[in-house]
Amino acid sequence: MIALISMGLFDEKDLTLRGIEETRKSGKVYIEFYTGKWHGNLKNLEKMIGKKVTELKRSDLEENSRKIVDEAKKQDIAILIQGSAVVQTTHLALIEEAKKLGIKTKIIHNASIISTIGETGLHPQKFGQYTTIPFPERTKGKLPKSVFEVIKENQKRGLHTLCLLDLDMENNRYMFLGEALTILIKGKVVSEDSKIVVFASVGSDRPLIAYGKVKSLINRNVTNIPAILIVPSRLHYTEDEFLKLYTVV
Question: Model's pTM, two decimal places?
Answer without folding.
Answer: 0.89
